[in-house]
Design goal:
4-stranded antiparallel sheet, 4 domains, globular, single chain, about 800 residues, 24 strands, alpha+beta
Amino acid sequence: MTPLDRSVPPRQRSEEWYVVVPTSDEVVNDRRRTWSYGLDDTWFGGSVDSRWFHDGHIIANHPALPSWIRHANGVLNTAPLEDRFLDEGLPEHRATAAMLSPVVAYAASLLDGMCADHPVAITHGARMDMLRGLHRRAIMTLASVVADELAAWKATCTALGMPASTPYAADETTWPDMVERLPMLAHVAGTLVTHWLEYVAELLSRLASDAEALVELWPGTGVPAELLRVSLDAGDLHDHGRSVALMTFDGDRRCAYKPKDLRIVERTLDLFERLNAAADEPLLHIRPMVLRPGYAWEGFVTTAPCASLDDVALYYERFGAMVCMYEHLEARDLWLDNVVASASWPAVIDMEMVLQPRMSADAGIDAAERYAQHMLDESSLSTGLVVMSFPVGEGRPAEDMGALTPLRPFRTPFKARAELTGEVETGSDGHVTFEHPDYVPVFDGLHVDVRRWHDHVERGYARMDDLLAGPLHAVVHEWVLAVDPDIPVRSIHRDTWTCQRILQASTTSAALLSAWDRDASLNRLVKVATGTTKPGSVEHAIILSEIEQLRILDIPYFLTPVGDSGVRTSEGSSLGTVYDGAPLRRCIERVEHPIDPEFRRDVLRASIAIGAGGREDRPLMVDVAVEAFDPVGIIHTVARRLVDLTIRRDGRYAWIGAVRHAMLATTSIEVLRPTLLGSLGIAIALHEARAVADIGDVDAIISCVTQQAMREMGSANAIMRSGAALPAWVQDPLEGLPALEHGLAILTDGRYGRTRSFPMPDFDLADRVAIFAEHGRWFPERQLPERFDLSAVNGLAAIVRLAVAASVRNERVTI
């Protein structure tokens, strides 16, 4: 067998163009065990063909032969690029460019023919940009392999007594040798080139068809004559390697090419234009667009500085209005990478993320918890425009990348190999970092400090909210009723960074040792899901689709029609119903029956307070010496406040509050879980408070939380019995089983659970009580709104328990 024969993925070995040969049962069974990751066939979507695990060979020139085989063979038979080409085209990291140059050189040999006789002249600079795009794809996909090869080269130099500075040498034997050792490298390289060629060919074909129509993006100009520059992959790779491309034509005319169905963007821009006209003022940013079936050309949003401080103020007021509008449209994933500051305009450049589907609530939670979650889902919290926390590694602080976060280098979960130093930016801990200044307005040559402009954001939000409820209400209502329910929107099931990490793990040297090792690296997704997913379920179908998309180097991409609750692949295949109702129906209900505006405005203030942009903006705690106060009075005031802030539905109770996640060093606004740091802690405070003060009838609240805690304890025990990996919260002393047992023992007078001793965290009680005593309120201006500071014992409940202890001792409290 040749290395190319060995590179065929398991499922393709049953195709007519591949001839299997007799292989021993021992080898077949060993490969099957590796591939399946210890799972039976039902987990892999049906019957498993034994031919997948046999050796065999490719039938050359078979009419059904996949393109990746032809292109992989082309790469293996292409010499590395000349030094001149490396200097001109890929100068960033010479050794990496040299190693990957056969991939680029083979593609370059085909590109000239694709560009010949094009009605828009494709300049040499644009062609070089396209090849750089392929190089970036290759290094992103094969970073681990490149690092391993460079490390081996350095070790060889050392062993032979050669200088450490000896440059890496690539020749005609480099790729054949690597593929001999790592057969699946051929499949990866062939897939990379196939997708890139098809993507570029499609882009050029569409440009030829639409060149005359593009003048709509630049009124008053002529048909573009030259494509000067093109930046490929200005977004993730989806749907067989397609991605956004930023294009520059003669006359410095720019646009964005987006190869996806963007009818929802066209509809949203239409709404914004109607609202601006009805208000007789420019409230929301709009841009021109040429819509085509399955793709679109959008006007390019250029960064530009603010001309004055008045422009900065206008920018943030418009930002607040934009937050309010996208909240009404239930937009998601609008983090800083999707926002551009263009003078006094904030602009979202990825508008396809409106009318997003919503996952069904956990069937086990009660009516009050479900409604509390619904309230949060209806707010701006989930848009990502204000705050959006990205986990970047266990034990490392999460990174706030909401579009109101201060400008700085942003950390990612990706660790850079030392051999690739210079290829990517890294922080002091070796993790990859990136900078994206485009989302921050510029004034007087400097990026604006967002923390000085929060009031303008809140003012702009409130004004837009009033307009949408008043004079602009009819415009939105008419628009939403006319939206075509068959228009699809993207639905995200797994965040991009996680998908990228899975993809990179499937292209390491170890994963490319054989076809079965690579599949096993992807089948881990199924293995991880066995504790929570059933074979044949919609969730199971989604995971299998993710694996198929990751196998061909795509970030998984799913669609949902706005009038539906199902999920589909990019090709339109239905995977089943998974969402809680239809996004369009929910938008209609939101327009006709909006959630309490004061609650939503508090969520905005809370989002600002918990984000990276809200910290240094907060005043310090008021320094007041409080010698004594009336404990019973404090108990009564605080306990009644805890009761007043409950969310009630069908005789059930819940709270929304700020939750501190110690492992991620971040705070989020959530429906409180029944833990000592959540509703269970509040119930304990009420239970103890009623023993010493008249706080009214709280029996129903305490009974409800007791049932919620017992439900949570049952879930934790079920996870432990299943043998699945335990979530971190199960063993947490303040949130897991120990805390549940302790709280239940208190609330039920020992009938359930058992009391334990807990090291309680520092609650800053002195500061909190001092502020209350001096001002009659809990927090200075611009801190977390009162209704959300219910993170149990580290908030109001802690003060209740302190006062209870003082009352029992019949003494006044000295802080």
